[in-house]
Amino acid sequence: PEGRLSLADPEWSDVHVVTGALKLFFRELPEPLVPYGLFEPFIEAVKLPDPQEQVERVAELVQSLPPPNYATLRYLLAHLCRVMERVDVNRMTRQNIGIVFGPTLLRPEREPGSLATSMTQQNQAVELLLAHFDRIFPA
User: Fold this and answer.
1) Which residues contact 95 (CB under 8 A, 6 or more apart)?
2) Are 45 and 124 in contact (CB under 8 A)?
3) 44-69: per-residue pLDDT in tens?
4) What is the tally of structural domains in the chain?
5) Is 1 domain-assigned?
6) How confident is the model at residue 114 (pLDDT cuts 50, 70, 90)?
């Protein structure tokens, strides 16, 4: 049937194709998975000097996400935690995943003056979500 695809097709055997499609899907959403209104609060939380406070604040922000966003973010991050377990094979450290998914999951509504600073903090936010997954997304 038209419009159907099979993940068994050879074109999908390259993990980079699948990852690229996933990133493109999230990047093309009308609003990022972390809604625009929560971008600044997330960045401010990452900037807090106390690591304990960072985690507590991010956990509060995550709890305030709309239910579909929360469920999708939780599912995606759980998967990325499993990807990190295979770091010896895939070289996907927490930092590398932050670089790949930070700007895709969290982005400002308007591009800021300092893109590099903002991007570093987006990456750090994803790293924090991964590092403290169990505390931020209690079972």
Assistant:
1) 123, 127
2) no
3) 999 999 999 999 999 999 999 999 99
4) 1
5) no
6) low
